[in-house]
Structure formats: structure tokens, C-alpha cells
Specification:
- This protein has 192 residues and is α+β, with helices and mostly antiparallel strands.
- The protein folds into 3 domains: 44 residues, no CATH class; 82 residues, no CATH class; 45 residues, no CATH class.
- It has 5 helices and 10 strands, in the order αββαββββαββββαα.
- A two-stranded antiparallel sheet has the order 1-2. The protein has a two-stranded antiparallel ribbon with strand order 3-4.
- β7 and β8 form a beta hairpin.
- It starts with 25 loop residues before the first helix and ends with a helix.
Length: 192
Amino acid sequence: MTSCRHCGKELPRRPPAKRDRPFCSRECYWDSMRGKIKVAKTARNRLRKLSEHPLAPPSGIVAVSRMVLFEKIGAGSHSCHWCGSRITWRVRNTTNLNKDDLVADHLNWDRTDDSPENLVPSCPVCNAHRTRANDQRLIAEDELTVMWGNARTRAVQRFCNICGKPFLTIPAEVKKGKGRFCSRSCARKAKR
């Protein structure tokens, strides 16, 4: 006989397909996971519960990066590090941001590095549209590109499986197994 991992109660005999279940009920399973889920979620999101902090919403949960930047620059309005527009601290209890809200921006793009030297005040627009100088997503002038949707996108050259002509497609299509034909007429000629 086996016993429940959480409460220790002996488990009844089960058919062979269900013998590997280590808990007597769903309640025992969720009770066993209760503390683990909270710790993992807090560590991933980098949050602290500080009800007395000036930036704390009614829940009392504040991001560590906001706390460190608040200690570095203080209360009041500040200028955006990137565009110079005036931004102010707001108590946030929703994810909706106004254009004049202050956001803690990480200079080295590492969200886990909350050192004061790495944090600067930023407006939401600059924070969202800032790109890395050495980012691989930036397209060089001499790279192959195609218009995909309404944006210029990096492209790769392929040869049509039917007619053999070279054509351009995006790498995402190649990864999905598509991008094998230069046109719809060639795709229709392919064996199914």
C-alpha cells in the first residue's frame, strides 16, 4: 500500500493506469503546492510587499526596481532619461500607463539587475521603443529584407521546389516548414 505525499493517508488500490498518482485528492495536491507557487511567482516578478512605501498600491506589492529608483532620485516629477519629457511617480494598481507616468528602465536590459547605477527614469513610450545598439533584431543596410505585413523584415533566399527560381521569404516561415515555393501557382503544382 502507498500513502498520500501530503497528508499521509493510505491510498486505496487503484487500477494500473492510476497507480502513479501520489495524492489522495486534488485538495492535497494544491495544499502541497501552496507555498511553492507563491515563492516562485514573487522571485520571477521581483516584487516586495511593503504596505507603508509611498509607491505601494492598496495591495502593498511594489516592484524592487521602482523601490530602488525611488530611493535614488526621490519623489516628485523628473525628466525622462531618453527624451527629456516630464514624468511623475504614480501609484500603480493596474497595468495601464499614461504617457507621463515614470517607469524604472534598466540600462543593460537585465530586469534582474536592480542596482541603482543600472536604473534610470523613463517614460513608457521610450521604455517600450528603446532598442539595443548591438541587438540582433536590428537590420543592417546590406541585409536581405522583404515587406512582411507593414514592416521591413529580415529575409532569407530560397529556391523554389517546383521551378528552381530564387525567391525571398522570412526565417519564421522556413522554421514552420513553409517558404518552399516562389508563388501560389508553383504551390498548386506541388504533389499533396
